Amino acid sequence: MDFWSAVLNFAETTSQRVGQQLLQDFGQVQADEKSDGSLVTRADRWADETLRGAIAQTFPDHGVLSEELAHIFPSHDWCWIIDPLDGTTNFARGIPIWGISLGLLYRGTPVFGYVHLPPMGRSFYGYWPGSSGLAMPTGAFCNGQAIAPSPDAPSGSHLFNVCARSLAVLQPPPFPCKVRMIGVATYNLLTVAMGATLGAVEATPKIWDIAAVWAIVQAAGAVWQPLESQPIFPLTVGQDYGDRPFPTLVVSQAALLEVFLPRVSVLVKP
Predict the structure, then answer these.
(1) Hey, which end of the chain has fewer CB within 10 Å, N or C?
(2) What is the CATH number of domain 159-267?
(3) Cα dist. 13→9, 17, 18 in Å?
(4) Which residues, 6 or more positions from 174, have their beta carbon under 8 angstroms from its beta carbon?
(5) Model's pTM, two decimal places?
């Protein structure tokens, strides 16, 4: 098995195994509030530990950065960034939209992403070599089928996703699309990659919310637009990414940046 086949096989089998256990705990666990106001459960902590252990066993020369424990970006050429349970509030309240996110970075930049959503039976993955120089597959997929963003222009029957901290974008004038809020950062952005929405914004995502989807979204052909002047990647060795947000807009095509970017610019602090 070559390297990329091994990476895909690992992401698929490990996230499926973790997902099966999380489904048993779904809606049955007590959530605690973290310092940033987000929720965490024993299921998050178990999934985080399990994923980190699986990476250490399968790819012992790879580093790991995770939501629940390891926030310092390591010096390894290869590093996994994991979100063991994206959508903890949905998970704890019995809403069946949540997932497991695995992003593989090469020298600080994501080149592969895998997001498994157990309640929906959907798994998204994508390869994005960018400027890495790596010889690797390309493309973005959901359950093995290629995905692509929508070519449509905005209308009252098209959708745009927001997060709970980005409601300011809805201020007048009227928004050019219907608006939805999903509560899962990874799936929020993936809906653009799969052609279901024309755009999505996340006001305060952390690095584990976006590492995997950064690769999948661009591999599908959608446009990723950071809302701050500094580029997100490559990450800096030794830096603590535990509290740093990365405001992000994703649109289905470059022409829509001029439509949506002025609306979401209100989210960026001067």
Answers:
(1) C
(2) 3.40.190.80
(3) 6, 6, 9
(4) none
(5) 0.95
